[in-house]
Give the backbone structure.
Amino acid sequence: MNIHHLRLIVIAGCQRSGTTLTGQILGAHPDTFLIDEFDGAYPFIEAFTGRKTPSEEALDHIVRTSAEKYQDHRAGFSQLSDLEGCAVVLKAPNVTYDYRILAPLKDRLRIVFPVRDCRAVVASILNLTSVPMIRNQTRRLKEHTELSAEFSDVVRHLENPDVPDSHKAALIWSVKTGMYRRFSDAGLAPFVFRYEDLISEAESLIRAMLMHCGLSPQHDVMNYPDILKGMGPGNTSRQSAIQTLSLNKWKDRFTQEDEAEILKIAGDTITGIPEWARSSVTE
C-alpha cells in the first residue's frame, strides 16, 4: 500500500496540554488507527511528507508495534496495507513546528490542536522530573532555523541558567500554543479546543472534533479504556479515565507572584484562545 494514499489526523500543540488523552479518544474510533510518538509517529510523518523514505519493513514494524496496544480487531494488524480504510491518528506534539511542511498536504490530513491553561502546563512540565522537557524543547526550537531566529529572545532566555524554570516553561507554552495561528494561516484549518472543555463538555466537544476529522460521531470513543491497552507516552495508562481533579492542581504549586509572572510571559498568546476554542465547539 502506498503511504501517500492514507488519510492522517495529526495531534499537535504543546506537550502536557491533553495530546495523549486526545490521541486515546480518537484512537478508540473504529475507523482510526493510533500511532503514538514513541511508536513511530515521527518517522511515519517523515515518510508521508517525503522527507525520508523508510523501508516497507520499517513501516510495517510501526504498524505492528501500535497494533499491540489495541484490544479489538486492530490488534491483528501487521503491515501498512492493513491500514486501508483507516484514518491514521498521529499523536505528535513535536510536529507543531513543522506547519510549513504539512501545509502542502492539507487535502489529506486534519490537524487537532488542544490548548490548556498555561499555568497548568507549566506546573505539569515542572512536575515531570523524568523528562528534561525544557532542554528538549529548547533543542527542538533551535533545530528550526527560521523559527529560532524569529524567537531568538526566547531561545536566549531558555539557555540562560539564571532564568527560573517556571519562566522557561511559560515561554515554551507561549511559543508552541501560539503555533495554532500558523497552522490556520497555512490553510490547515486546525481544530483548536481547550483541554478544560474536554473535561467539562466532553460530549459536544468530541462530537465536533470527530466531525472535523471526517469521522462518524455516533461511536462511543469515550470507551477508550476498553479498546486500547498498555501504556501511552509519559507512562500514561490507557485504562485511565479522564482525571477531572487535574484541572486545578497547579493552584497548589504557585504563589500569586508566580502565577502573575507566568500569565505575563504567556502574554498575547492567551488573548483570543477561549473564543477560538468555543467557536470550534459550536460551529
Notes: The chain has 15 helices and seven strands.
